[in-house]
């Protein structure tokens, strides 16, 4: 079968690899119909060339392990592949644990499904496991301001959607070119608003202060974690009680005191505790383990897709299948994506023989 490998640049090569074997009794082999991409796919390749990238799988179950109970061959699914392990989304067939796989209803396309696994779970971990905010099934009962920085990104937009399901308002969204999309996610009648970062840092801070109406900020999800985002947030935070969730670990958070409550989302923790957090980070007491939480949230996503109160992120299909990955990842690196997720149809890969179930 064909599989793509990502190298610095980013440069993508297509290789012939053996058909995957089930790594354990709780895993599935999935025929990948559409794969999604994330900034980590080019970023990790810069320091770990040739590693397995691509973790957003949407496709059809090929086979299941002996202990898998909720899936069978032929099921339409989306899944979060375990990062940096063999057989990810960038190939004809991928492997994923049952706990991070969910059914796709007939009315949900593979393209939409491929936008959800990594970004949706990153948002959920940040809001509920790191910041300790109310979950949708036990929603907030009072005003609870939340800033989502980078609200038009896939992670940021999922954070806005989930916060709204948790009755968290006002949601103060920092966005730029994608502000039009973010507008469709918020409820102005509940105080939700958008602050345009293109006006400059001083304007962002002023906009945040105006939206908070004199309150000090207690909760922020920083889906950017770069370009001055966290420094801007520190101007409005309650420095004693505030909590900040960030998405980049290899970052010096200059201007954020070491004593401040900041948390790294680290989506890989829904698979394993081996993934690192931030130095000095403290786990919130009373939280479920991330692996248990992840399994619950993927069932929650599945239920929402089935009933129509949850959906994926806007997407753009990059032509060429696996051969389109280099273009898509280069565009991600260049910052060209706004309110859109790049996805790739495997069957469009030139020269693909076409594996069958």
TrEMBL record:
Pfam family, one: ADH_N
All copies of domain Enoyl reductase (ER), residue ranges: 9-270
SUPFAM superfamilies: GroES-like (SSF50129), NAD(P)-binding Rossmann-fold domains (SSF51735)
InterPro entries tied to this protein: ADH-like_N (IPR013154), ER (IPR020843), GroES-like_sf (IPR011032), NAD(P)-bd_dom_sf (IPR036291), Trans-enoyl_RdTase-like (IPR047122)
Keywords of the record: Oxidoreductase
SMART domains: PKS_ER
Molecular function terms, GO-annotated: oxidoreductase activity, acting on NAD(P)H
Alphabetized PANTHER family for the sequence: HYPOTHETICAL OXIDOREDUCTASE (EUROFUNG) (PTHR45348), OXIDOREDUCTASE, PUTATIVE (AFU_ORTHOLOGUE AFUA_8G01420)-RELATED (PTHR45348:SF5)
SUBUNIT field: Monomer.
Similarity comment: family membership: Belongs to the zinc-containing alcohol dehydrogenase family.
Protein's UniProt name: Enoyl reductase (ER) domain-containing protein
Provenance organism: Verruconis gallopava
